[in-house]
Amino acid sequence: MRMEQDFAAARPAAQHCAELLGHAGARAARPEERAALVASWRRDLARLLADELSALLAGDRLSVAVGAPEPITGAEVLARIGPVAANCLLRCGAGGERVLLSCDLATAVALTERSFGGAGRPASPAPEALPRSAALLVEEAAAIIAGALARASLGDCPPPEAAAAATGAVMVRSESAARLRPFDPNGACLGISFTITNQEGCSWPLLLACDAAAFARLLPGSRSLARPAARRRQAAVLGEPFASIPLPLSVVLVELDLPLARLEALAPGDCLPLALGRQVPLRLGEMVLGVGEVGTSAERMAISLTRMATPGAPPPPAASGPPPFAPPPAPPASTPGPDAAPLSLADEGLA
Fold first, then answer.
1. How many domains does the chain have?
2. Sorting pLDDT into bands at 50, 70 and 90, what band is 322?
3. Burial tier of 111 (Cβ tally within 10 Å: 0-12, 13-18, 19+)
4. Which SS3 state, helix, strand or coil, does residue 340 take?
5. By C-alpha distance, which of 271, 274, 310, 276 is closest to 295?
6. Which domain holds residue 220?
7. Which DSSP state fits 103?
8. Domain-embedded: residue 109
9. Which residues touch 213 (CB under 8 Å, ≥6 apart)?
10. Which of 108, 204, 299, 329 sits CB 3.0–4.6 Å from 86 for a disulfide?
11. Residue 311 confidence (pLDDT)
């Protein structure tokens, strides 16, 4: 029995449109759809930045306003930033989208001051170079912003695998934006200004800039994000970047008091007697961290800590010696020897 049959199509096969098939990238987003995506991205980015930068800025309750993307060329971005600024080149998402983050030096120093509990108001005139502490804080803030940019690209309801995929990192930092070469100077770019404000009324303006094509891939719906998400890092005094800042410590071996007249009479060759106490303080500025005993270690002078200072407790007294400059005793009166003749009033011319 033959089972093979030749069949002829009764009508042409259906050809479904791209909208029904859901092909990614089958058509460009309409202007109104793109406007809605950009508006959603701005809201999500502002919310993420307000939440995640709070821990870095003394726990402030922040509000962040993200401006609309402004079409601009790469050369115009570099001209707007100027020759010297706090610049970081960010990498966002698995696609490695490059985004330039920039702020002026006065804003960077003000953010650093606020992170340590200060007022955080930009000083005038602006510093000529970025202090090390400000450079470290800029990198920490840039890492947070890079992560927020990646997560904002996921939209409101990302799938679980995408929600665990948003990453961002700081590639390099420089005070010269042109040296970073973030994009083609003649290419089409987008500049996005955003302002961070706290409840005390301090405002810190920053600028994001990237290639126009890279920005399109960072909008919600992009599939360029596919790496595991980095856990949010809480800024802490004992964590990076502050843990790497060197702090000068001093060990006070002895303290002594001198009268003003003796201090004025000091000259090379004078000898000042010192008496070391059993316990000497270890200080950071005016704050006593602990006390210890002076000795040697590996043929070098060292201090062995015996007790750490308790917060709120009075500082231990510094080592002090006896008053080394008491007036010398008066010489004893001379007594006549046995052969000395007694003096009379006539001898003294007093008779």
1. 1
2. very low
3. buried
4. coil
5. 276
6. 29-242
7. E
8. yes
9. none
10. 108
11. 62
Contact (CB, 8 A) for 132 and 112: no
In a domain, 58, yes or no: yes
Cβ atoms within 10 Å of 200's Cβ, excluding its own: 10
Identify residue 190 by its one-letter amino acid code: L
Please give the structure tokens belonging to residue 323. 């008053």
Amino acid at 284: L
The answer to whether 101 touches 87, Cβ cutoff 8 Å, is yes
Q: Which phi and psi (to 5°) does residue 151 adopt? A: -70, -30
Mind listing the pLDDT tens digit for each residue in 206-254?
999 999 999 998 888 654 443 444 444 555 556 666 777 788 888 888 8
Secondary structure element (H or E) that encloses residue 11, with its range: none
Distances (CA, A) of 118 to 58, 60, 113, 199: 9, 12, 5, 14
**Which of 191, 193, 194, 224 has the alpha carbon at shortest distance from 210?**
191
- Which own/partner contact pairs does 285-291 have at CB distance under 8 Å and 24+ positions apart? 288/315, 288/316, 289/249, 291/316
Contact 196, 148 (CB under 8 A): no
Q: Which residues have C-beta within 8 Å of that of residue 292, sequence separation ≥ 6?
A: 279, 280, 282, 303, 304, 305, 306, 307
Residue 262 inside a domain? The answer is no
Q: Which distant-in-sequence residues (6+ apart) come within 8 Å of 316 by Cβ?
A: 279, 281, 288, 291, 309
Tokens of 137: 């804080």
**pLDDT given for residue 221 in this prediction:** 67
> Domain containing 193 — which CATH number?
3.40.1550.10
Asked whether residue 178 carries a pLDDT value surpassing 50, the answer given is yes
Once rounded to an integer, what is the mean pLDDT over residues 122-151? Answer: 90
Question: Quick check: is 238 in a domain?
Answer: yes
CB contact at 8 A, 258 and 243: no
| Cα dihedral 228→244→298→249 (10° resolution) | -150
Distances (CA, A) of 309 to 185, 291, 313, 315: 57, 7, 7, 7
